Amino acid sequence: MHNIPIITEEIYPVPLSKVWNAITDKNQMEEWYFTIEDFELREGAEFNFTVSFEDVIYHHRCVIKEIVPQKRFSHTWTHPSQSNGESVVTWDLQPVDNGTKVTLTHTGVENFADAGADFSRENYVAGWEEILGTSLRNFLSK
């Protein structure tokens, strides 16, 4: 069960360019994802954001690894306040009949074992399903 990537797939009935902009444009990301003050779409750029849940603030630090315009966006994903671990999130976009398929792959979540139960694989699966299945879907349907 360890080292198995989390893979979440969704198909959205919108053009690929609309999805690409939603996942890579700072202003659009704020509407459905997170507020990321220091986001810059550039390989090697670092960006940070925080999420508060049940009186705990979770700091996320990410570094952009790969950008293939209109196809792939990949970045590291760390929680420096809670864990020494590092993982990688990759967004792959593919045109399909009448829309766009997004495949999100999150590898390395087992590296957060030192952070406790809040960082379980199950919590990441639920989080990505909510983010892609509800938040992004609702944003794209506007």
Automatic annotation (TrEMBL):
It comes from the Bacteria. InterPro entries: ASHA1/2-like_C, START-like_dom_sf. It holds the Pfam family AHSA1. Residues 14-140 form the Activator of Hsp90 ATPase homologue 1/2-like C-terminal domain. Belongs to the AHA1 family. This is Activator of Hsp90 ATPase homologue 1/2-like C-terminal domain-containing protein. It comes from Dysgonomonas gadei ATCC BAA-286.
